[in-house]
Structure formats: C-alpha cells, structure tokens
Design goal:
single chain; mainly beta; OB fold (Dihydrolipoamide Acetyltransferase, E2P); five-stranded mixed beta barrel; 1 helix; 6% helix; globular
Length: 90
C-alpha cells in the first residue's frame, strides 16, 4: 500500500514537504476546468494555498467551491506558475 501522510497545507505551500506524496485537508476556493481537460482545484487553509490537479487519465468528481475536502496526490512545484501542487490527484 502506498503511503500518503496527512500534511498541513501550509507545509506544502511553503515548500517544506520533501516527500513525494501527501494527503491535505483544506477549503476549496476555486475550481477551474482547463481546455486540456485538467481540473485545477485551489485549496486553501485561509492563509496559504496549493493547486490540486485532476487529469483526464485519472478522472474524479470536482468538489464544490466552499467544501472542505481531503485530497491526496503527488507533491510538485510548478515553476511556471510559482506554486506548489498535488499533481495528479490520486
């Protein structure tokens, strides 16, 4: 079984998490359906945010803005956008 440790959202958002996988709880601030089929979910703890990406190859229902959710995936830094993300969500 693959381990997805529960990590505070701020730890990932600040680049302090050095392991490849994580599970994060947060508030859904935004859901954006991209033209390439990805879904970007902006997850926040009120002071920090990360972006969580659903990819077409691993589809799942999109959460509603305002929902509190627990998401898990691969931790990555997106240098183009300069944010930390869970990409893809698993």
């Amino acid at each position: 079984m693959v381990d997805f440790p529960v990590v505070p959202l701020a730890t990932i958002a600040k680049g302090l998490w050095k392991r490849p996988r994580a599970r994060v709880k947060g508030l859904v601030a935004q859901v954006v359906h991209e033209q390439d089929g990805d879904v970007h979910i902006r997850l926040t703890d009120g002071a920090n945010f990360i972006v969580c990406e659903v990819i077409p190859e691993l589809p799942m229902p999109s959460p509603h803005v305002g929902a509190t959710v627990m998401l898990q995936g691969i931790v990555r830094y997106d240098g183009e956008h300069r944010w930390w993300e869970l990409h893809p969500l698993l």
